């Protein structure tokens, strides 16, 4: 087994080309290895010192989040909190302070867990993944990247460099809500992210919803436009969101929930995510994470 | 199957450089306990859940069971042995004893690391902020109330 610390992106790419696997915070890789899920790779390159990959940059086109941006950084970043709130909601729910200090957005995206909290927000923002190898850089959409639980279409020698999010239109809001049984060190039972852009008359102009832990990958909810566009975000439209989310989910049963309970609850989460996103789009301030406003989790 | 290769690295723990020779896959808690010889840091769940293994890495709490020791080279590692002020206990340690925030004691080193990092960042935390700061640390004895009280007492400058 070999271990190197990359001091430049080029270093890291050369190591990957030679067969190494990258480690950033290690919270998936090391825990997985100790559980026998997958042994530690024979060759590891640590990428956590590539500070150029941890920046969160506002550009003319939107927001560029380096692959090494931590959950702790994202939940506090002023632009993410104000304009990409669903991603801040999700980051604030991950693990504990210690988990959020080492966990990275690139690690989440490339680990491709269908239960990752940051995935549904990225999907409703239409984020593109920048992948780089010694042979060049390419941009991939998330539905093209995620092919199954823990599985991506990226080649083994490709490194996730950044997530690129489009600029948010005026009168937009977003939210991520998850079902959790406790308020720390929890994995989503199910979750939902929503992005809402309001028309000048207060009706919905654009709505996107994505679901967590109800399919082999994070999935978008389709076919919402007819029920929502040009209509107010009210009981009728929210009920339509809940129905569509439940119908389009394909959850499994495991120790955390049955498939039928997940199917019902993902509808509830989707309705709440759209409601909160609509309120934020209308200018209402709802503290990060939205889960607290809904009283989800422990009774305290 | 390649032969295991050992790495010779220095780990800076509580301000002292310790040279260690380890397999690259070793986690930090095992190296701290078995190679460096500081056994204050505990291994509980070994699953990044309980926080007994909490140490500070460049001042930030990290679960040392889920962190490769080799990744910690060049960083400042602080363990519970490093919070003493000479021969004197840290005020938080005294307050934990005073408040009854220690029963079996297994979670205490991790609690101290999370709490000292919180107080360094936020010297006057609310009760909610304390509970969030300690949310990665499980205690099966105290019910947490007296641990929270000890952090509040420390923030208030007692001891």
Q: Could you characterize what this model shows?
A:
The complex is a heterodimer of chains A (300) and B (159). With 300 residues, chain A is α+β, with helices and mostly antiparallel strands. In chain A, 35% of the residues lie in helices and 24% in strands. The model of chain A has no long low-confidence stretch (mean pLDDT 96). By secondary structure, chain B is an alpha+beta fold. Chain B has two domains: 7-82, Ubiquitin-like (UB roll), CATH 3.10.20; 91-155, [2Fe-2S]-binding domain (DNA polymerase, domain 1, Orthogonal Bundle). In chain B, strands 2-1-5-3-4 form a five-stranded mixed beta sheet, sandwiched between helices. The A-B interface holds A 1-3, 5, 23, 25-27, 30-31, 33-35, 40, 42, 44, 46, 48, 72, 95-99, 101-102, 183-185, 300 and B 2, 4-5, 7, 23-25, 27, 46-49, 51, 54, 57, 60-63, 65-68, 70-71, 73, 114, 117-118, 131-133, 135-137.
Write the layout of secondary structure elements.
The complex is a heterodimer of chains A (300) and B (159).
Chain A: E1 2-5, H1 9-17, E2 21-23, H2 29-34, E3 43-46, E4 56-58, E5 62-66, H3 71-76, H4 78-83, H5 85-93, H6 97-102, H7 105-111, H8 119-124, E6 128-133, E7 136-141, H9 142-145, E8 146-148, E9 151-152, E10 159-166, E11 172-179, E12 190-198, E13 204-212, E14 219-220, H10 225-228, H11 235-248, H12 259-281, H13 290-293
Parallel strand pairs in A: 1-3, 2-3
Antiparallel strand pairs in A: 4-5, 5-10, 6-7, 6-10, 8-9, 11-12, 12-13, 13-14
Helix pairs in contact in A: 11-12
Chain B: E1 7-13, E2 16-22, H1 28-36, E3 54-57, E4 60-63, E5 76-78, H2 91-99, H3 108-121, H4 127-133, H5 145-155
Parallel strand pairs in B: 1-5
Antiparallel strand pairs in B: 1-2, 3-4, 3-5
Helix pairs in contact in B: 2-5
């Amino acid at each position: 087994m070999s271990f190197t610390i990359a001091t430049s992106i080029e270093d890291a790419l050369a190591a990957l080309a030679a067969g190494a696997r990258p480690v950033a915070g290690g919270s998936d890789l090391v825990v997985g290895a100790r559980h026998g899920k997958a042994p530690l790779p024979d060759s590891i390159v640590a990428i956590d010192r590539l500070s150029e990959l941890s920046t969160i940059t506002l550009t003319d086109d939107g927001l560029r989040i380096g692959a090494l941006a931590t959950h702790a950084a994202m939940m506090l970043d002023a632009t993410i909190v104000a304009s990409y709130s669903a991603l801040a909601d999700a980051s604030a729910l991950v693990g504990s302070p210690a988990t959020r200090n080492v966990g990275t957005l690139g690690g989440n995206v490339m680990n491709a867990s269908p239960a990752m909290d940051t995935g549904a927000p990225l999907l409703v923002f239409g984020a593109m993944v920048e992948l780089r190898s010694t042979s060049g850089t390419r941009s991939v959409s998330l539905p093209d990247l995620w092919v199954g639980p823990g599985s991506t279409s990226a080649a083994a020698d490709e490194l996730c460099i950044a997530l690129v999010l489009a600029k948010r239109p005026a009168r937009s809001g977003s939210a991520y809500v998850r079902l959790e049984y406790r308020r720390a060190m929890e994995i989503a039972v199910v979750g939902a992210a929503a992005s809402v852009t309001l028309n000048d008359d207060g009706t919905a102009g654009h709505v996107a919803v994505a679901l967590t832990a109800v399919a082999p990958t994070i999935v978008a909810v389709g076919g919402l436009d007819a029920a929502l566009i040009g209509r107010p975000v009210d009981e009728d439209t929210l009920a339509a969101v809940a129905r569509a989310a439940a119908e389009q989910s394909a959850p499994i049963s495991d120790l955390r929930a049955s498939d039928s309970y997940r199917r019902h609850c993902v509808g509830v989460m989707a309705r709440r995510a759209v409601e909160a996103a609509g309120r934020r789009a209308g200018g209402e301030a709802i503290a990060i994470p939205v889960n607290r406003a809904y009283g989800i989790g422990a009774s305290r | 199957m390649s032969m295991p290769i050992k790495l010779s690295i220095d780990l800076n723990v509580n301000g002292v450089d310790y040279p260690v020779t380890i397999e690259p896959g070793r986690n930090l808690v095992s190296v701290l306990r078995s190679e460096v010889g500081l056994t204050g840091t505990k291994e509980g769940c070994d699953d990044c859940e309980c926080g007994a293994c909490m140490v500070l890495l460049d001042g930030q709490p990290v679960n040392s069971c889920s962190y490769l020791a080799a990744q910690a080279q060049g960083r400042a590692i602080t363990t519970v042995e490093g919070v003493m002020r000479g021969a004197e206990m840290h005020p938080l340690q005294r307050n934990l004893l005073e408040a009854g925030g220690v029963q079996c004691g297994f979670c205490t080193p991790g609690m101290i690391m999370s709490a000292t990092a919180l107080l360094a960042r936020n010297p006057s935390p609310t009760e909610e902020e304390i509970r969030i700061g300690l949310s990665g640390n499980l205690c099966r004895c105290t019910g947490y109330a007296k641990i929270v009280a000890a952090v509040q007492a420390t923030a208030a400058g007692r001891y």
